[in-house]
Write a structure and sequence with these properties.
Layout lengths: L1 H41 L11 H14 L3 E8 L6 E6 L3 H11 L12 E9 L5 H4 L1
């Protein structure tokens, strides 16, 4: 009889733990969906930075370092190409890439040495999928 009571107690504890885990998962999923919706809403063309600057890009790269992002990305438009180019670099290259961009692009993010090339957007994230919504 004692062993049966013990099994019932354990069973109830497991049920309660499952309820708690389910509740936490539901909260996290709801928060994820809210964040995903907000990102999509905020990243529509009307909310995008139409004239990005080097100073703003530097701030984003510094945020990426501070928050420990795995990747940084830039979107580059080039005359003669139908689609922009997206370049993604790992966190190990953030400082080097930023130094390159500072040396190669003007404050308005046009290329210093090649007309028709300009950075039109930039972002950071922890997975490649994140750039789908931000670039």
């Amino acid at each position: 009889m004692n062993q049966q009571k013990s099994l019932n107690e354990v069973s109830e504890e497991l049920r309660e733990a499952c309820r708690v885990l389910y509740d936490e998962f539901a909260k996290a999923l709801g928060l994820y969906r809210l964040i995903d919706w907000l990102v999509k809403k905020l990243m529509t063309e009307e909310h995008m930075n139409i004239n990005p600057t080097m100073s703003e890009m530097i701030d984003i790269f510094e945020d990426a370092i501070e928050f420990g992002a795995n990747y940084i990305a830039v979107k580059i438009e080039m005359d003669g190409f139908e689609m922009p180019e997206v370049i993604i670099n790992g966190k190990e290259n953030i400082d080097t890439k930023l130094a390159y961009y500072k040396n190669t692009y003007n404050e308005d993010l046009t290329h210093k040495y090649s007309n028709g090339i300009r950075i039109v957007n930039y972002s950071y994230g922890n997975t490649y999928d994140e750039f789908h919504h931000t670039l």
